[in-house]
């Protein structure tokens, strides 16, 4: 009786002992689907490639490093800066073993150039500044990630890889490295990344090209000046002598309308031919185009002295604008653009040309308007200016049509 | 009127935006500056372990330090007993400390056996627990079925299997597993197992009474540890809530928290109870804004919004960052919480519905049904919740809130 009782008690005790882990886990398990917390272990690797060079930064949690390196020397459950600083060499050695960078088959050895600290939401991280040089320019970067997996199987490396794209913009790729997918290769030279940002950056460079072309394109500037100089005046017949005379326009409104018509006509015309040429629909020999541009400048300047062109200036601007458009197109062609971005470049370049043109108008017209009533304006600005422009454009014409090198610009 | 209203709203948003970085600084100790070099060697950088609840204190007191165990395992990585012991310790600590890092460490300790199709049963069990915590319920169940096939008298395997079956909505199998557990485990544990299943299929009343009885009988039992008692009391509180016995529910939640005030599951469930009762202000003292635990931060943020607390916008922002961080590493474990976040805090019902449906495909507990119904109604797509309505009908799942939601979802 006694023995049976004892035996039963012993059996019961054994069951309970077996159930000790069960007790905790049973509770945990039922609750577990909700228990998502703190943060799982990640390291953050940011790399930038440039030619054969890689620079970057690697944030690794101090808590995670403590598992491997026992940073907490004094065992007070707090890691202080001294416990990190004095172990930098060990941290570097461990980190280097945890990351291989390769292009093709060749290893890109990397070094730690600096150690810093950063605070993430789940505690402090050591920040390793990295620098690597590959034996060749990087085309495909292979990242072999193996940090911390031996102590935390759910650890992941989060990579942000930046590299300059063909169009000069930066493109960014991201990747996650779990233990099951620890070696990944990235095509560094191909397009991709954030297409909209890259396109905008691209557009910006074409706009700049367009502005630059107007700024250094004296033929276009002189053409516009010749075209616009008389805009603040009106040609009338003297009642007594019957001679043609330049009189200042009465008000700002009249001058403004004239300028608006001229600039709009010029813009529409050169946009048409620029597009036709850029899209390869019409092609003219550049020598002919350049010579015709010189002719257009010469003719416009001459018309200011002895009128022979149509009285409606916007018509002149439109006709000659067609020729200038072909000129812009040859510049665009010289920029050697990839076909994929032709429309974008066309748009950007044209916007740039318009911006440059408007700046010129904004400087020239107010000055001309304010000085239009002086006696000097028709004589010096208009007549002498037109003579000078005609002379320069004649030089261009000779130079361009005969393929000589006469002019300094 | 309209204009004034939106101006006020904008003012509030602006104040929130201005305040947010400051509060963030206070809450998460994030330096707004770039990486830096500390001034002195004595500058403390990071805390290694969090404050432990009573159950965790119990386990840590009786075991050697983690460091010692890790060193032992490093010397003898094929020692399955040692590896299992370490993994068990980490798994239970990950529960009490709400720290997913420890699960990854447990998995690493089992590394030598992790990929084996038929590892030792002790490893199978741990692998199943880690997998189910990561919501890989399919593989977890497979491991557990193998475990009970190899050791039909393994109580822990049956209990764990029952839980996985219940979470994924296979209530019939869960009841069978609890029945297989009954002769192998103390009455308190097997009764709680079956009460959990019954409580989800229209028998909450019986389940509640069964738990009351068994708790009284097992009061002096050695198996009635604080961890188990917390588990039982919280389940009982949830059953009371399902039965609309609100005073009982509150009393039981408080009793459970009196045993382990740091139990995240109970705090979360009690907070939901308070928010539903329109007592969101009482959640604020329960969950500090600095909580490291996402499921608690979510409740705190919802409560803060409900009472227009000054840190409301900052908490929403912080919560959004936590979900973003989890997505960045490719985790899809927090779908239920993320759906709730989208619905209650981001005011994005379509996104919430998408998340809730993805969640329903994986787990089918009462909370999953509820967020699915709420999201479908908010997105004005009650048809999207047809499956959930049918589920509630067929399981006879009780609860006033659920009944209201299903009625709404059913009406055209």
Determine the mean pLDDT of chain A: 81
Number of DSSP helical runs of chain B: 22
Tell me the β content of chain A.
15-25%
Q: Gap between N and C termini of chain A, in Å?
A: 123 Å
Shape of chain A: elongated
Largest interface: A-B, 66 and 89 residues
Q: Characterize the largest beta sheet of chain B: strand count, sense, and whether it forms a barrel.
A: none
Count the E strands of chain A: 13
Tell me the fraction of residues in β-strands of chain B, as a range: under 5%
N/C terminus separation of chain B: 33 Å
Helix and strand sequence of chain A: HHEEHEHHEEEEEEEEHHEEHHHHH
Oligomeric nature of the chains:
heterodimer
Biggest sheet features of chain A:
6 strands, mixed
**Helical residue percent of chain A?**
40-55%
Uncertain segments of chain B of ≥5 residues (pLDDT<50)? 1-33, 50-63
Short description:
Helices cover 52% and strands 22% of the residues of chain A. Chain A is an alpha+beta fold and 409 residues long. Chain A has a six-stranded mixed sheet. In chain A, strands 5-4-8-11 form a four-stranded antiparallel sheet. A two-stranded antiparallel sheet of chain A has the order 12-13.
């Amino acid at each position: 009786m006694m023995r049976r009782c004892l035996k039963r008690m012993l059996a019961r005790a054994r069951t309970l002992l077996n159930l000790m882990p069960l007790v905790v886990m049973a509770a945990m398990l039922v609750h577990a689907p909700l228990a998502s917390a703190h943060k799982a272990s990640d390291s953050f690797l940011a790399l930038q490639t440039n030619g054969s060079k890689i620079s970057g930064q690697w944030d690794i949690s101090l808590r995670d490093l403590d598992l491997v390196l026992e940073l907490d020397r004094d065992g007070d459950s707090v890691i202080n800066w001294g416990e990190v600083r004095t172990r930098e060499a060990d941290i570097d050695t461990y980190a280097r073993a945890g990351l291989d960078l390769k292009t093709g088959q060749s290893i890109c050895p990397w070094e730690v150039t600096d150690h810093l600290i950063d605070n993430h939401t789940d505690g402090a991280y050591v920040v390793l500044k990295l620098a690597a040089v590959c034996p060749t320019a990087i085309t495909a970067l292979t990242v072999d990630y193996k940090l911390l997996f031996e102590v935390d199987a759910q650890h992941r490396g989060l990579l942000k890889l930046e590299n300059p794209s063909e169009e000069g913009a930066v493109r960014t790729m991201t990747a996650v490295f779990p233990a099951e997918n620890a070696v990944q290769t990235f095509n560094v030279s191909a397009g991709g990344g954030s297409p909209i940002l890259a396109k905008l950056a691209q557009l910006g460079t074409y706009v700049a090209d367009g502005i630059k072309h107007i700024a250094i394109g004296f033929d276009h500037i002189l053409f516009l000046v010749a075209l616009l100089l008389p805009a603040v005046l009106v040609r009338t017949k003297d009642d007594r002598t019957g001679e043609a005379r330049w009189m200042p326009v009465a008000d700002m409104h009249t001058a403004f309308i004239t300028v608006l018509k001229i600039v709009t006509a010029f813009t529409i015309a050169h946009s048409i031919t620029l597009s036709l040429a850029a899209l390869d629909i019409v092609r003219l020999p550049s020598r002919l185009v350049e010579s015709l541009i010189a002719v257009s400048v010469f003719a416009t300047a001459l018309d200011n002295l002895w009128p022979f062109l149509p009285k409606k200036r916007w018509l002149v601007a439109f006709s000659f604008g067609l020729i200038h458009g072909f000129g812009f197109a040859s510049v665009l062609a010289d920029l050697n653009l990839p076909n994929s971005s032709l429309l974008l470049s066309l748009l950007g370049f044209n916007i740039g040309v318009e911006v440059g043109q408007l700046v010129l108008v904004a400087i020239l017209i107010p000055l001309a308007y304010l000085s239009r009533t002086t006696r000097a304006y028709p004589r010096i600005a208009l007549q002498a200016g037109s003579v000078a422009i005609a002379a320069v454009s004649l030089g261009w014409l000779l130079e361009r049509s005969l393929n000589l090198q006469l002019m300094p610009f | 009127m309209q204009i004034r209203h939106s101006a006020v709203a904008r003012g509030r948003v602006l104040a929130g935006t201005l305040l947010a970085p400051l509060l963030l600084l206070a809450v998460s100790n994030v330096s707004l500056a770039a990486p830096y070099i500390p001034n002195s060697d004595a500058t403390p950088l990071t805390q290694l372990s969090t404050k432990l609840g009573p159950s965790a204190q119990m386990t840590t007191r009786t075991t050697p330090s983690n460091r010692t165990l890790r060193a032992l395992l490093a010397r003898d990585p094929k020692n399955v007993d040692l590896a299992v012991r370490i993994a068990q310790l980490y798994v239970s600590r990950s529960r009490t400390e709400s720290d997913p890092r420890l699960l990854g460490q447990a998995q690493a300790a089992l590394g030598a056996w992790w990929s084996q199709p038929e590892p030792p049963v002790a490893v199978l069990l741990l692998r199943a627990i880690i997998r189910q915590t990561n919501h890989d319920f399919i593989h977890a169940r497979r491991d557990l079925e193998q475990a009970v096939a190899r050791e039909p008298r393994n109580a822990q395997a049956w209990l764990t299997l029952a839980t996985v079956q219940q979470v994924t909505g296979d209530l019939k199998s869960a009841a069978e597993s609890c029945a297989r557990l009954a002769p192998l485990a103390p009455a308190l544990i097997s009764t709680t197992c079956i009460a959990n299943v019954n409580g989800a299929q229209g028998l909450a009343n019986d389940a509640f009474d069964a738990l009351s009885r068994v708790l009284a009988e097992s009061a002096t039992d050695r198996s009635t540890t604080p961890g188990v008692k917390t588990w039982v009391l919280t389940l009982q509180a949830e059953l009371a809530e399902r039965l609309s016995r609100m005073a009982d529910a509150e009393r039981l939640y408080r009793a459970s928290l009196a045993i382990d005030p740091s139990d995240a599951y109970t705090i979360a469930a009690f907070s939901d109870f308070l928010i539903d009762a329109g007592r969101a202000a009482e959640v604020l003292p329960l969950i500090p804004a600095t909580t490291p635990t996402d499921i608690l931060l979510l409740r705190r943020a919802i409560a803060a919004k409900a009472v227009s607390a000054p840190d409301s916008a900052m908490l929403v922002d912080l919560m959004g960052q936590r979900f973003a961080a989890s997505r960045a590493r490719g985790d899809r474990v927090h779908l239920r919480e993320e759906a709730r976040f989208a619905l209650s805090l981001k005011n994005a019902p379509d996104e919430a519905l998408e998340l809730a449906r993805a969640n329903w495909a994986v787990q089918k507990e009462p909370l999953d049904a509820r967020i699915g119904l709420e999201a479908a109604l908010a997105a004005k797509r009650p048809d999207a919740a047809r499956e959930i309505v049918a589920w509630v009908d067929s399981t006879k799942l009780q609860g006033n809130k659920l009944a209201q939601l299903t009625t709404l979802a059913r009406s055209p």
